[in-house]
Every structure is written in C-alpha cells, then in structure tokens.
Specification:
226 residues, alpha/beta, Rossmann fold
C-alpha cells in the first residue's frame, strides 16, 4: 500500500488552513499517515498550556491542536516502526538516519559559529528519523512511498535512501490540478502565510509566483500532476 509520511511541521502548518488540510486528506485518503513519534510530537505541542505558548510557538501549537483532533478522529492514522528483518535492522537504521540529521545540524551550526546540543538535536529529529526509517523500509520492499516535509535536512537524508519527498508547496500544488482546482493565487497566498513563522521551505524549493500552483497540463502530461 502507498504511504505518504507527514512530518510535524508540515502538518501543523497545513492545519492552519483546515479547509486545505481536508482537501489534501480527500486527495490522499488513508495513505497519508504519521509515525507514532510524529503523533507524540504533535500531542506534546498541543498539550502546551496557553501560559507557556510564546509568540514564537503560538501558531505552531495552534496548528497542533487542530491536527490532534484529526488523530483522535482516526482521519490521520498513526503507524509503528517497521519490524526488522535479515536485511533491515530497524534500530541500526534509526541510528544511521539520526546521525545524518545531526551531522547536517552540526555543519549548519559550525557555519553560523554556533554550538549544538546533541541531546536537543536527537529530540528535535525524532519524528523525522522515524518517518524516514518507515519510508526506507517500504523502498527496500519495492513499495511506493513519499516523505512529506519542509525540512531541508530531512529531504537530503531521505533522498540518500531513495525516498521521494514533497514539501508543502508541492503538496498544495496538487490541489491546483484537481477536477475542481483550488485557485492558484489562493494556494500561493496560503503557502506564504502558513510557512512564514515555522515549517519554512528551503529557499531553493520555495515557489516564487502563483503559477507554481497552476496545472500545466499540455496534452496528457503536467509536471505537477503527471
């Protein structure tokens, strides 16, 4: 079965526009899932009291509140880590992926003249690590999967395991290719609004105009919808 693994930031950003989240879920159906680690991250954010929500985290936590309702209603399923096999050691793969993600963090910190906290880095990447490992197992078994994330480091690591990735811009662009398409300008404006304070897409992947969300079907092909 096809699996689209959504990460915390992307889902919480998308949840700021529940109508668009509903449309994405209508499009992906039961194939859009989260790992138990991502679900735990989202529940933890939602559990942050109002007094503890800062101007920097308020929108993220508000998005998490919405996603938790979808999790509780079963509209977004929570999946466990894959069982291991002779050719796939789940815990070894978790360690490999986390090391790669932490290495990207460390390199970025060094360029910026900052230090990194290994424990904080591991905690920060728990959801992404589990999602990449789940997707990697599907790739190894010859199945179809995709990682839904805005995180540049997670995209780099996932692609090193042959895992296709989509960021929020690419995901929203699919709504412009439906039989009843969402207006491209509305999608572009929504993308800019929900990624302004968190879940920022890497600069090289950011759409720069509404045309990025408009179906480009020529004959039977479109670079967005195939």
């Amino acid at each position: 079965m096809y699996r689209a693994w959504a990460d915390t930031g992307l889902l919480c950003a998308l949840a700021r526009r529940p109508v668009l989240l509903d449309k994405i879920l209508d499009l992906y159906g039961a194939s859009l899932v989260v790992t138990q680690a991502v679900a735990a991250e989202i529940r933890r954010l939602s559990g942050t009291s109002e007094a503890q929500r800062t101007p920097q985290t308020r929108l993220l936590c508000s998005g998490a509140d919405t996603v938790v309702r979808y999790l509780n209603d079963g509209r977004i399923a929570e999946c466990p880590l894959p069982t291991g096999s002779d050719t796939f050691d789940t815990f070894d793969k978790l360690d490999q992926v986390l090391r790669k993600l932490r290495g990207i963090d460390a390199a970025a910190a060094e360029r910026a003249g900052r230090t990194t906290d290994a424990v904080a880095s591991a905690h920060k990447h728990a959801g992404e690590t589990h999602s990449i490992v789940c997707a990697a197992r599907i790739v190894e078994l010859g199945g179809k999967t995709v990682l839904l994330t805005n995180d540049g480091g997670a995209i780099t690591v996932a692609e090193s395991y042959g895992i296709p990735c989509k960021d929020l811009g690419q995901l929203l662009a699919e709504l412009g290719c439906e039989a009843d398409p969402v207006d491209a300008a509305d999608l572009f404006n929504s993308f800019n609004e929900v990624t302004r304070t968190f879940a920022t897409v890497p600069a090289y992947r950011q759409p720069t105009a509404a045309s990025a969300f408009r179906c480009l079907k020529h004959g039977d092909t479109c670079r967005l919808c195939g």
